[in-house]
Amino acid sequence: MDTLISLLQIGIGAAIINNFVLHYFVGICPFLGVSRKVETAFGMGCAVTFVISIAALLSWTFTYFILRPGAPLPGWVWRVAGGDPATSVDLSVLSYIMYIFVIAASVQFVEMYVRKFFPPLYKSFGVYLPLITTNCAILFACLEIMKNLQDPTRLWGLHEALTLALGGGVGFTLAITLMAGIREELDMCDVPKPLRGPGISLLTAGILAMAFMGFAGVDKSVADALKRLTENGTPRVEHRTLNTEY
Amino acid sequence: MSNHDPTALERLINGILPENPVYRQLLGMCPTLAVTGAVKPAMTMALATAFVLISANCMVSLIRGLLRPHLRILVFTLTIATFVTIADRVLAAYLYEMSKQLGPYVPLIIVNCLIISRCEICASKQSLPVALADAVGVSLGFALALGSIATVREVLGSGTWFGLAVLPSNWPNWGIMVLPPGAFLTLGILLGLVEWLADRRRKHVT
Amino acid sequence: MLATVTILLAAAILAVLAVGVAYVLGWANRTFHVAVDPKVEAALDVLPNANCGACGFVGCSEYAEAIARGDAEVTLCAPGGAGCAQRLAEILGVTVEESYPYRAVVHCAAHYDDRLLRTHYSGEATCASANLVAGVQGCTYGCLGFGDCTRACKYDAIHIIDGLATVDYHKCIGCKACARACPRNIISMVPFKQERMFVVACSNQDKGPEVQAVCTVGCIGCTSCTRRAELMQMQGNLPVVDYERYEGNDHFEPALAKCPRASMIYVGKPSPADLVAVADEQLPDRVEADFKTTVDETEWRG
After folding, report:
1. Are strands C196-200 and C264-268 parallel, antiparallel or unpaired?
2. Which chain B residues have any C-beta within 8 angstroms of a chain A C-beta?
3. What residue of A is the nearest CA neighbor of B34?
4. Which of B83, B90, B86 is nearest to B56 (CA)?
5. What ipTM is given for this predicted complex?
6. What pLDDT, in 10s, does the model give residues C239-267?
């Protein structure tokens, strides 16, 4: 139950409270570029969610076994080479290169696979896949996973990494679809000329970001409520009675 | 529009204002919004991006004869990733506090559309001096953009500039400015301003 | 020692990764290969890629796919013209008869001064709006001159000159945007079998006295032209030119000479004689619409 609660916290955190687009500013380029119509925006969001999950899976595997300080593979090589067991080889300097390589290769692979076996799916979001290779959101998810694999006492498992990735993808889809809906309406409005296009989109994004700030603390409240549910049978806070005896 | 390829000097000057990467080309938005809460991190980011852009442009220009068409984006990305790793390690070594403040945004320079686009458009086709001038111009433009947004956000949001107090202490700090919404709003309004100025210039010329 | 092992291990891991990924992607490329019709690629190369929509498809790639499937004629591309149609025909191995470029023709010849019973209009300065209001000008069929077609044209090929929409045949590519935009449907597409074509520049379906009351140049339906030119037929009170059988301009000379009004004209690129005739003249200033309203300063479109 505890893991479930922490997963929920991570997921809600990534999707809504620390929304990838509106809080961390990653994935702005497709956010402004592809969010003209709701259908295309939703397609882009699904594509990003799909790729981010695959990238998280691969990068977690690589980071856990090779790149983090104290990883098994370099440790084994070091021992075999007869090195001092107190120190070890630290390959974390390879992180960025490996992540980007993995993302690019997996996107390429996925694109070929989808094009062959799911043609209707390819028609709806396959064309966005090459764009996603340089999408900050994917690399950001990988970096977050790497950040949580640095401390040997609190290592994230694969389930946490995937939850972060899925949550991030869902949050991105939510933000981009909302933006597309608003922009479709904005098309009919009389926007002042200098602000047309990216200007008004950014202002709208700012107001959206303000709205999403209202979700702050939701993950903690939900987690606390669930904890109380499992412990006390009720999610409510027990009323404390005043101790009037002095 | 001139009908010859822009010379090195023209590219350098173009990158600063007429084809400013953030205000005119709308590239590299992610770091622009993320690190411009204060001027110091913004300038550090601009410096890091400048280093990566100039190095990557030079490297790509040197190997432009060896590029295969379907692999070139991957080659650009890997080159940029190498230089970003260098920049990240140097920052962590010499400016640790700033590195912690910038957090994941230094490695995100790898996927900064700006650098890949300059490599693709300019460095992969031009000789070394031209690519170098282009990179320098665009870096200056990027620094200008980051600096302007960070100035607005820091002065209004904390009453300071580069850590030095510039507004009287009874200024109610506009907290929204240093938070994410403030970034969007500032960039949107400044974009509108630049667009309006460019429009006026166009009307003036014609 | 630590440094050496680190560097060697890093290089080895990257090398293994690179080789592994290359193998996997190479295998995937062959296994997941999707046969793309080379005809579609070749067709896309030939098409102008303007994505104007004149062919009736959403974009050049849609049209290319339709051609490759055999669902569409190769002659539908207006900007590409006859040359493009020929090359497409070669790619697909079909024969195509000679086709001509279609260009927009405005079927109205009345400038501001020719229109009678004009009133002051203070509504929205678009043809679509003015068309809904009664009495903006006497003729309810002809050009209103508020420029919906000008705004629809992406190629700067049609302008309102002295209140009448005038096509610039140097720039028109035949995308039909103006024809679709005109609320009175007086712009039609005419195959330009030669540089200057004979057209009937009036859309007024009323007869004699009614037309004379609203316009000084409109067609009164006297049928003098149809009696002198075989390719002209009366449809209601307006003559219509048969462009399918159109061969030369000389056929229409007697009709043109006998027309009591100025409703039949030549349109197209200026002939050498015309150019010589105006060589000494100074170009007049373009006269903009004289309906100045309070909403003209804004771009409010409701």
Report:
1. antiparallel
2. 26-27, 29-30, 33-34, 73-74, 77-78, 81-82, 84-85, 88-89, 104, 107-108, 110-113, 116, 176, 179-185, 187-189, 191-193, 195-196, 199
3. A25
4. B83
5. 0.85
6. 888 888 888 788 888 888 888 886 667 77
